[in-house]
Amino acid sequence: xxxxxxxxxxxxxxxxxxxxxxxxxxxxxxxxxxxxxxxxxxxxxxxxxxxxxxxxxxxxxxxxxxxxxxxxxxxxxxxxxxxxxxxxxxxxxxxxxxxxxxxxxxxxxxxxxxxxxxxxxxxxxxxxxxxxxxxxxxxxxxxxxxxxxxxxxxxxxxxxxxxxxxxxxxxxxxxxxxxxxxxxxxxxxxxxxxxxxxxxxxxxxxxxxxxxxxxxxxxxxxxxxxxxxxxxxxxxxxxxxxxxxxxxxxxxxxxxxxxxxxxxxxxxxxxxxxxxxxxxxxxxxxxxxxxxxxxxxxxxxxxxxxxxxxxxxxxxxxxxxxxxxxxxx
Length: 329
Description:
Structural class: alpha/beta
Strand content: 5-15%
Number of strands: 10
Order of helices and strands: EHHEHEHHEHEEEHHEHEHHEHHHH
CATH class of the largest domain: Alpha Beta
């Protein structure tokens, strides 16, 4: 068994363009080379990592670098499948196999024929389904629910989990023989808190990507804002970071995200209400930003829409540190 450690910075880049990657960190380049050596094989892979670290991104990258890249990549979240339908979804069913089966249906294994099947949260599979999955891996064939004849399959399986499967095996919640079938090659993705040097790379990528998506001028973080991002705990990993950056981009009226906006984005749910003055200031800033966006930064026109004289309007802009030039097309 081979164990690889994949940095989150690499996981981010994979989500952008799997075939054209550039890394400054020599460790990332070395790890990518090792992954590229594994990708051409048909070895079953097990990707382990906390929620939000980018396990599906890594699985897609393995597929894109494999000889199967022209064939389907099918991703299935095992945790989202109901226990009564999981076998039908994975292996397919025949017409009349159960109530509601009005027509025959391919399962995910057949859908991925010739390509790659990615089973996320593999630890959530029911015990009975684990037995049948083990047989599929051994025999390389599936039997639809309600059928007798097996269907040969040619699929590379990649599984992922955010739980300790070895502990699940010891607790009797996961089959040991299936664990070893899945764990031919293991790829461990560290948490974002363990890869803090990657946070600026990730944050700058996200802010540029989201700025373009929202047609905003926002393109970077102030040094103080970036320091807050690097120091945050990131229990939700890359997914949480992306969510925080999206909040910043959606609310930021300037090209540079300030530290105050990052602080707001990092705040968890709270029952505390803002003071009246804080709420009014937030409303004023958002209202002024909206006016400037509507008028493309034309202060005279924005002041007329707000029914304020030009001098008063400029005073409001200065109070909220809003630069009309940022909103000009």
